[in-house]
Amino acid sequence: MQTLSLCTGVGGLDLGFAQGCSDVGLRARTVCMVEREAFAVAVLAKAIEEGRLDDCPIWFGDLGELPVRELPRIDWVIGGYPCQPFSYAGARLGEGDSRHLWPDILRIVREVRPRGVFFENVGGHLSLGLDGVLRDLGECGFRCAFGLFTAEEVGAPHRRERVFILGMADPDGEGCQGRGHEQRRPVEWPARQGCAQRPYEPARCVEPSVGRDVDGLSQRVDRLRALGNAVVPEQAAKAFVELYRTVNYS
């Protein structure tokens, strides 16, 4: 299955989607990523070079400028569209927020007509905007399921609540080439705050008490921004499997 990844960030959703597909017997390959943050693009390029993500072009620009007609066949569209319009940490302006990109994503979905979609956003999306997204996808012919999942559920030391949405236009998945379940390596999570450091963790750094930044930490703001927007791959994989089975077997 050929996948278009929108608002890719540093690729956490892509890794989780690939693992989730494998867990239900599907094979997916990303054929294009779309990301406008230079730091995130650099991270993606390095991950591609190291073989951790599929080798594909990265569209470094806005969604509205993506040359959709030049894309190859797209079977799945995935993405974590901006959370600022819905987040409790912001003004929650919804459709009135200039960063509201759902209309652009919906337009792309309508143009490429994929067999499936898989999206992610913050927990605040449940009470603001999610009903409209589900209505739009329903009008496009998708059977949808959604759910709130946390990183804590897969063993991470933090909650990171996220809403995941999965829609399928072809519930039977006919014509997809499957493969068997692959054994996952155990995740080595860092110790929770206040707990002793674990043997496999790198040495910790302590910030000066005067409130300055750690000396020598390059691109600190970009790193924090990327981590704040990132998706825990194991969390996304769990969400994909549960929602996929809900849509196909309910």
Name the features.
250 residues; 7 strands; Rossmann fold; globular; alpha/beta; 7-stranded mixed beta sheet
Question: Could you characterize what this model shows?
Answer:
The chain has 250 residues and is of the alpha/beta class. The protein has a single domain, classed as 3-Layer(aba) Sandwich (Rossmann fold), CATH 3.40.50.150. It is 29% helix and 16% strand. The protein contains 6 helices and 7 strands; from the N terminus they run E-H-E-H-E-E-H-E-H-E-E-H-H. The chain has helices spanning 12-23, 38-49, 102-112, 130-139, 220-229, 233-249; strands spanning 2-6, 29-35, 58-60, 76-79, 116-122, 143-149, 162-168. Strands 3-2-1-4-5-7-6 form a 7-stranded mixed sheet, sandwiched between helices. Helix 1 (12-23) crosses helix 6 (233-249). The longest helix is centred in the C-terminal third of the chain and has 17 residues, at 233-249. It is globular.
Task: Summarize the structure in short.
The protein is α/β, with parallel strands linked by helices and 250 residues long. It contains six helices and seven strands.
